[in-house]
Each structure stands twice: as structure tokens, then as C-alpha cells.
Amino acid sequence: MEKSPGKPVVFIVSDSIGETAEFVVKAVASQFDSGQIEMRRVPFVETEAQIEKIFEEAAACNAIIAYTLVVPELRQKMADEAANHSVLTADILGSLMGAFARVSYKEPHLEPGRLRQLDEDYFRRVAAIEFAVKHDDGKDPRGLQEAEVVLIGVSRTSKTPLSIYLAHQGIKVANLPLVPEVEPPEELFWIPSHRIVGLIIDPSHLQQIRKERLKSLGLDEKADYGAFERIEEELAYARRLMKKIGCTIFEVSDKAVEEVANRIVQMIKAKGGGS
After folding, report:
1. What is the tally of structural domains in the chain?
2. Where are the beta strands (DSSP E) in 69-144?
3. Which of 41, 53, 140, 180 could be disulfide-bonded to 237 (CB atoms 3.0-4.6 Å)?
4. Max Cα separation, the chain?
5. Angle made by CA atoms 266, 268, 273, in degrees to the nearest 5
6. Is residue 66 part of a domain?
7. Same domain, 100 and 129
8. Which residues have a Cβ under 8 Å from the Cβ of 67 and sit 6 or more positions away?
9. Cα separation of 105 and 102, whole Å?
10. What are the backbone dihedrals phi and psi of residue 61, each rounded to the nearest 5 degrees, phi first?
11. Cβ(172)–Cβ(123) under 8 Å?
12. Residue pLDDT, tens place only, 127-182
């Protein structure tokens, strides 16, 4: 590589994509008129041979090397090559990792790309939450096939709370209410049964929940929605449909959302799916 006339060159070296190092270099460069500085990013550095080649190029154009390497052997190689070639280097992570280790009494993970992985986890959770909201209560059944888990059950079996809880763990969940008078969307039968979870509840417990719901809405507790006979009819229909589909069935009576959600996560892991 040839040096651009009049421009100092900074090699940005990383064992990941190099965004962190580039951001720091740009911040420093802004104090020296960043338009007069040439930056060359070298990502995914994993071997000592790569480092040797970088130093040969850097020495040829009197460049600075700024790096974010977490593997100790590679950082030591950087120090050795810097001494051999008399090239200025800046270890962006090294001194700060050492300080963190001293005050926390813990050793760093030394995993390249860990920050990017954490960012990806965050955005996956956000996307999963958006998906759960979009596909809550049977909305947009066309998206059922995209879901990692589809929850089905009669009204007030914790489908929505479970969907949101699982979404916060990065799992894409859709849920569908089961009503005897309403034919479920055909998309439900296109989904592999191991991705569907049926939620069943004790009828007496469900009646209590529904009566409280009616009361909170200012409606008559004797409405058909809270009638025991109606509830038994709905649950019988739900069981028949779940048996036809062949899905896993979870009993949710008197169980916390977290407990049921953890069982669903374990099921996903056992099937080799999920995030």
C-alpha cells in the first residue's frame, strides 16, 4: 500500500469488525482535522502472520496502528512487532481491561466481538417484542409461520403475558385465541406441531379469572363469558383441537408466567430451536 501524500495513516486493527477502534480513532482524529488523516481498517485479525503483514505495511508508510485485540497472544505479538519495526501503536482496550480487572477482581472473557454480540442480542429482543405485539391475539395470521413458538388457548390463559415474556428473551412468539364458533386460520395447520404450545387451565380457576375481568370492565359477572358451562365447552373444544394438531400442552392453572415461560424455553432448547 502507498501512503497518500501529506496524510498520516492509521491502521485500525481488530479481532472483530473494528467499529470500536474506528470510533476512538475518529474521535482523536477530529482534534487534528480528521480530513487530513487516512484510516485503513483491518478487521478479523486472528493470526500472528496477519499481524506481521500489517506491521510491514505500516512501517513502509510510517503509520500508527490502533488496535482492539483481546486475545493475550495476539496483543503480545503486537507489542513485539511494534518494537521490531519501531512503529507507534495504541492498545485501545488493554489498559482499560486491566483497570476493570483490578477493581472488579474478575478476569475478562477475552472473547472477540463480545460487544457486537451483546448489541445483536439487544436488537434481537427488540425485534421479538415487535413481532409479539404485531401477532398478538390472532392478528395477522400470515405471520404464524415466522414464529418460533405459537401459543394457542381460550381467553385468559396468559397467552399475551407469556408472549411478551418470551419475546424479552429474544424468542419470536405469536398467539392465537381459540373460540368454538370461530374456525382457526388455516396457517395454524401449516406449522410443525413442535412449534405450537397449547395452554389449558382448570375451568373453576378460569371462571374466577373471567369474573374478575368482567368486574374490572364494569360488566355483569353472570355474562356468558364467565359461565361455567360455557368455559367447559371452550376448554373441551381447545383440547380437541390441540389433540388434532398434536402439539405440546401446558397446564397454566395457578402457575406464574415465569414458570410456564421457562418450561417453554426448555422445550425449545430440547427441540434444538430458539435463539
Report:
1. 2
2. 89-91
3. 180
4. 87
5. 140
6. yes
7. no
8. 12, 13, 14, 21, 45, 75, 78, 89, 90, 91, 92
9. 5
10. -120, 20
11. no
12. 898 999 999 999 989 889 999 999 999 999 999 999 999 998 899 999 999 999 99
